[in-house]
């Protein structure tokens, strides 16, 4: 595990080192050749590299949680199917039996999966999975923000500032209208 | 050597099921083209995405106090008026109630800052003001359903002078006492992180939470029943309407989803 972390750190540092070096080395000629938004993008490449490097670690974590998620589902499915098979011999092989088999199948699967969804191991893994997915989404947002900045467009953060401003304005107007009505 | 016996009824059922499966697209409407809601209404008041619907009366004599239905923020209001024969709204109108209903609409990213304060003290309060002005009364009756019941309960406790009767239908009041599998998922769930990253509570996640309650009954059996009843026009119509209603789960504004605990403890 420690070895894995060292390797990640090594690649991360190497990537950061060279992206910084390349950015510095190319800054002089690009100042002359790339002007406007593209110049902005080249100077922001470091941020994209950094986000991608960090995302690698999270992708590995996400995969592990995802594998565990499907494993839990598959194990529960297998367990439920075994239970159904053990009961099937007691069900008569006729018309009513088919209906009874369907009922037994659904009841056993429902019980087994409810047991899984109600367990600590499922909840912990599922929420770690969602949490890592959100981390990846944050990285994707950060990268998109760099692109938006380079294209001279408002970033997510800037748009959210406007949303919040609008929200506060609406509340102020509403309070003013309300106090005017009462007066 | 043993002789294999096949029950002709079982084979017949299987063949019927296969036929129904193949013919279903010809016999049923495309789910997204199904129309929800049956009773006529006017949009009496509108604020942001919220609409106050006023249903057309069905009796000449009416109950003096208007009834305001505060629908849930989860799912849309159509379930109260999904079919003329099963319409809660129509039933109330036939009893002489003057029925108003709040359709909270479908929040988008811009609505992520909407919280309890806005829902209770702005939208709900403005709707009550509007109804009182229009019908010349001082108080209304409020029926709150599900999370709409939570909002109506909070509103009634903060503005008792505006509420004549409160009918709380399946309100979420002490959600922390919930013992279903959903509460198990919620136990380790980082709501703040989700809201901070995504903005609003995504409908797909809400749908996931509902799905794990009865995954096989809701996810398998009901579709088998649907195919088995494909020739039953009423069953198919009702099934598709409810499926469409379930599918139209809107997102929940981030701020509202994180729930202002101060409000609930008051």
Automatic annotation (TrEMBL), chain A:
<comment type="pathway">
    <text>Biopolymer metabolism; poly-(R)-3-hydroxybutanoate biosynthesis.</text>
</comment>
<keyword id="KW-0583">PHB biosynthesis</keyword>
<dbReference type="InterPro" id="IPR010123">
    <property type="entry name" value="PHA_synth_III_E"/>
</dbReference>
<dbReference type="GO" id="GO:0042619">
    <property type="term" value="P:poly-hydroxybutyrate biosynthetic process"/>
</dbReference>
<protein>
    <recommendedName>
        <fullName>Poly(3-hydroxyalkanoate) polymerase subunit PhaE</fullName>
    </recommendedName>
</protein>
<dbReference type="Pfam" id="PF09712">
    <property type="entry name" value="PHA_synth_III_E"/>
</dbReference>
């Amino acid at each position: 595990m420690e070895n894995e972390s060292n390797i990640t750190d090594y690649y991360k540092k190497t990537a950061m080192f060279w992206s910084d070096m390349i950015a510095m080395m190319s800054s002089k000629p690009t100042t002359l050749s790339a002007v406007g938004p593209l110049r902005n993008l080249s100077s922001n490449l470091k941020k994209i590299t950094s986000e991608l490097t960090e995302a690698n670690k999270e992708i590995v974590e996400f995969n592990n949680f995802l594998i565990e998620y499907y494993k839990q589902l598959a194990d529960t499915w297998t367990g439920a199917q075994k239970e159904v098979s053990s009961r099937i011999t007691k069900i008569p092989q006729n018309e009513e039996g088919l209906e009874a088999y369907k009922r037994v199948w659904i009841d056993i699967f429902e019980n087994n999966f409810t047991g899984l969804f109600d367990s600590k191991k499922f909840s912990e893994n599922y929420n770690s999975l969602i949490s890592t997915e959100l981390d990846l989404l944050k990285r994707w947002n950060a990268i998109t923000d760099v692109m938006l900045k380079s294209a001279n467009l408002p970033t997510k953060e800037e748009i959210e500032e406007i949303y919040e401003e609008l929200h506060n304005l609406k509340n102020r107007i509403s309070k003013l209208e309300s106090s005017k009505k009462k007066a | 050597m043993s002789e294999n016996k096949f029950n002709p009824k079982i084979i017949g059922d299987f063949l019927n099921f296969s036929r129904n499966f193949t013919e279903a697209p010809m016999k049923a409407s495309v789910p997204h083209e199904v129309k929800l809601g049956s009773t006529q209404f006017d949009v009496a008041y509108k604020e942001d995405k919220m609409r106050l619907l006023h249903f057309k009366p069905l009796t000449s004599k009416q109950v003096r106090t208007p009834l305001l239905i505060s629908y849930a923020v989860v799912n849309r209001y159509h379930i109260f008026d999904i079919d003329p024969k099963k319409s809660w709204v129509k039933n109330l109108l036939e009893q002489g109630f003057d029925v108003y209903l709040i359709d909270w609409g479908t929040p988008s990213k811009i609505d992520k800052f909407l919280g309890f304060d806005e829902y209770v003290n702005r939208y709900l309060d403005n709707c009550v003001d509007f109804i009182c002005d229009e019908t010349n009364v001082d108080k209304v009756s409020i029926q709150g359903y599900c999370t709409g019941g939570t909002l109506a309960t909070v509103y009634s406790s903060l503005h008792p002078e505006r509420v004549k009767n409160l009918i709380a239908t399946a309100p979420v009041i002490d959600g922390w006492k919930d013992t279903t599998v959903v509460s198990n998922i919620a136990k380790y769930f980082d709501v703040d992180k989700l809201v901070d990253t995504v903005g609003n509570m995504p409908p797909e996640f809400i749908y996931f939470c509902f799905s794990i309650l009865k995954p096989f009954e809701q996810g398998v059996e009901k579709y088998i029943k649907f195919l088995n009843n494909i020739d039953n026009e009423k069953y198919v119509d009702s099934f598709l309407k409810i499926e469409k209603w379930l599918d139209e789960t809107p997102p929940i504004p981030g701020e509202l989803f994180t729930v202002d605990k101060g409000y609930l403890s008051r």
